[in-house]
Write a structure and sequence with these properties.
The chain has helices at residues 18-26, 55-63, 170-198; strands at 4-8, 11-16, 35-37, 45-46, 79-80, 84-88, 93-101, 105-110, 120-125, 135-145, 157-166. It is of the alpha+beta class. It starts with a strand and ends with a helix.
Length: 199
């Protein structure tokens, strides 16, 4: 159902369906801080503050990409994984961490409100243990999650990043991390089925 509107300046655009707004976000044409409204809302509010487009709801939809056509463009499986990283944009350095990763990109949490979609950043992954390899990726910010209350210095924001270039060995290490988590999920699901069958 097309019921969502976006405010830009003094103009109102729409109506859009939920899937159309998600596609606009993925294309960099709509952002989490854009003001939106639909019938039933008392006032315009930032996209990320609505139930339908909250960070939690979007994360759930993205992780169920196989059942959600609007997310089917993702080329690599994505998993939740916290990894310490260093980020810089040639001007400043930040300590950060990943919230989820894939071979093609990551969702980063870092303490700056100043990066924006289209910015190029360097992401250095630090070893978690002796079996891991440290590596760097050159990435492009494709999305940013924040709200008006959180738009202040020293507040962690979430940035979606696409990896355009990777160090040698980076793809192999990313794939290993992702596959390890996918294998654990598969084993856990199979174990639960086995217990259910035997009870």
């Amino acid at each position: 159902m097309k019921e969502w509107y976006i405010a830009r300046g003094n103009k109102k655009y729409g109506p859009y369906s939920v899937d159309e707004l998600i596609q606009l976000r993925q294309q960099g044409k709509a952002f989490e801080y854009d003001l939106v409204w639909k019938q039933g809302l008392r006032q315009w509010k930032p996209l990320v503050q609505t139930e339908e487009f909250s960070a939690h709801t979007m994360a759930e939809r993205a992780l169920k990409a196989e059942t959600c056509a609007v997310f089917n463009r993702r080329q690599h499986p994505r998993v939740r994984k916290l990894i310490p990283v260093l980020v810089h944009n040639e001007l400043e350095f930040w300590t950060a961490r990943t919230l989820n990763i894939s071979v093609g990109g990551a969702l980063l949490e870092l303490n700056t409100p100043y990066l924006k979609p289209g910015d190029t950043i360097h992401v250095h992954f630090q070893c978690e243990n002796s079996e891991d390899t440290s590596f760097s990726c050159l990435g492009v910010v494709t999305g940013k999650r924040f709200s008006h209350e959180r738009l202040r210095f020293n507040t962690s924001l979430q940035y979606s990043v696409r990896f355009d270039e990777k160090d040698q060995g980076a793809e192999e290490q990313l794939q290993k991390w992702v596959q390890d988590i996918l294998d654990k999920k598969t084993n856990s699901a199979e174990g639960a089925k086995h217990v259910a069958v035997n009870n």
